[in-house]
Design brief:
Radius of gyration: 20 Å
CATH class of the largest domain: Alpha Beta
Largest sheet: 5 strands, mixed
Oligomer: single chain
Distance between the termini: 24 Å
CATH superfamily of the largest domain: ATPase, nucleotide binding domain
Bound molecules: 2-acetamido-2-deoxy-6-O-phosphono-alpha-D-mannopyranose, zinc ion
Shape: globular
CATH topology of the largest domain: Nucleotidyltransferase, domain 5
Structural class: alpha/beta
Order of helices and strands: EEEHEEEHEHEEEHHHHHEHEH
Length: about 325
């Protein structure tokens, strides 16, 4: 059995899983609150504790583990093994040496990667991307993360920063995005933007179930609530998914003309909307892509759910070890 630990540092929780990489299986996983306000040192301490815990709870020992992979939700410098920019985490993260700190703390090889690139690698290796040669993945949640596989390899680009698909510009004059640009796909179609569309239709007094479903507590409007309304036949809610799908479909159309991939995988919490989201994405792509045979491109939701990132990080840790042993 080849044992690795995959770990995801998120804005709310840290999740770690013990992975049998040859079987592509998570043997045991645990999570703990991130408590980012306590600062990077404390968070890295909790990551290390959680990793030790999943190993011990499964009855394994540290010597059984070949390597550890840790993902983080933002910009990392993979050459230096450091964090550059995590917008959704409190505390001062620029230049935090995540890789070397954890590696000396755990006395194991540690590899780091962006969270959505981890999901991409997980789905590609063990999930909805299996068997594809070229694929792109979008992870739609609080933000829109992404990753690209070309010729069976995760595309890294400069310092590992390729694949920021949420920051494709889809409107020249769109709203300001957290990254600094205007009109990014993330500003239109990540979970907070979808929820805001729901809030607006309720505030305008439009005939929709959305308000009723949350007892008119606007803070409770989420993409899940809007999906529930749409499934009950609510036309206004369906319109919100159509708009969301056309924003995301526009970004994907740009990806398709760049990569001509055979598969696009949509992951993250928002992917639970299923065909409410995928149908308008498919329609938009047909409207916008002329030079590539779009009918051959599969647009699918991820298969691994919450395990995608953990499996992807275990796989990444293994790939990094193999690359190091080749020199
Ligand atoms: C942002 C971007 C991506 C990240 C994504 C994650 C930053 C700080 N982050 O688009 O690197 O993958 O958020 O989204 O630029 P989340 O839903 O996991 O927060
Ligand atoms: Zn942006």
């Amino acid at each position: 059995m080849d044992l690795f630990v995959g770990c995801d540092l998120g804005g709310t929780n840290i999740k770690a899983g013990l992975v049998d990489i040859s079987a592509g299986q998570v043997l045991l996983s645990r999570s703990t609150p991130t408590l980012a306000q306590e600062g990077p040192e404390a968070v890295m301490g909790r990551i290390a504790d959680l990793i030790r815990k999943v190993i011990a709870e499964n009855g394994a020992s540290m010597e059984d583990i070949q390597g550890v992979g840790v993902s983080a939700p933002g910009l990392l410098d993979l050459e230096k093994g450091i964090v550059l920019f995590l917008t959704n985490l409190h505390g001062h993260w620029p230049n935090v040496p995540l890789q070397s700190h954890l590696s000396s703390e755990l006395d194991l090889p540690v590899a780091i990667l962006n969270d959505a690139r981890a999901i991409t690698l997980g789905e590609y290796t063990f999930g909805a991307g299996r068997g594809a040669t070229n694929m792109a993945c979008l992870a739609i949640g609080t933000g829109i993360g992404g990753g690209v596989i070309v010729d069976g390899q995760l595309v890294l680009g400069l310092r590992g920063q390729a694949g920021e698909l949420g920051h494709l510009t889809i409107d020249l004059n769109g709203p300001r995005c957290g990254c600094g640009n205007k009109g990014c796909m993330e500003a239109f179609a990540a979970a907070p933007a979808i929820a805001t569309m729901g809030v607006k239709v309720v505030q305008r007094g439009q005939a929709t179930l959305i308000g009723e479903l949350v007892d008119y507590d606007l803070n409770k409007i989420t993409p899940e609530v809007i999906a529930e309304a749409a499934r009950k036949g609510d036309e206004i809610a369906r319109e919100i998914w159509k708009d969301t799908g056309s924003y995301i479909g526009t970004g994907i159309a740009n990806l398709i003309v760049t990569l001509a991939p055979e598969r696009i995988v949509i992951s993250g919490g928002v992917a639970a909307a299923g065909d409410l989201l995928l149908d308008p994405i498919r329609r938009t792509i047909k409207e916008r892509v002329f030079l590539i045979p779009v009918e051959e491109i599969q647009i699918l939701t991820g298969e691994l759910g919450n395990d995608a990132g953990v499996l992807g990080m275990a796989q990444w840790a293994q790939l990094q070890l193999q690359a190091a042993s080749r020199g």
